[in-house]
């Protein structure tokens, strides 16, 4: 990867927490020449939200990261801009599966901001 770059591929890998197996979701990136992982999570913090992510991934270990810029005009005239994120897969029949996600922690959000300027 170049000095600063971010992959549009979300990967998942299993980890163990208190005897239970869970997936963590992340994109690989390079920032100032350093390889990093930026973790993503469902917009909701619930077991069901993670089940939806598992459905979107199906049997795959990777999926597409969809980044959509937005701009909203506030009542006071200020413009708020940013990006929304989703994970998307398409099955063999062309059926699209997609779920909205967010950076897992504030530091992940900061890393994405630095990379997507």
Shape: globular
For the biggest β-sheet, the strand order reads 1-2-3-6-5-4
Work out the strand percent. over 45%
Distance between the termini: 17 Å
Mean pLDDT: 90
What are the key terms here?
117 residues; alpha+beta; 6-stranded antiparallel beta barrel; 56% strand
Please explain how this structure is put together.
By secondary structure, the protein is α+β, with helices and mostly antiparallel strands. It is built from 2 helices and 6 strands; from the N terminus they run βββαβββα. It has one domain (5-115). The longest helix has 11 residues, at 47-57. It has a 6-stranded antiparallel beta barrel with strand order 1-2-3-6-5-4.
Write a compact overview of the structure shown.
This protein is of the alpha+beta class.
Protein topology:
Elements: E1 5-17, E2 20-31, E3 34-42, H1 47-57, E4 62-73, E5 79-90, E6 96-103, H2 106-115
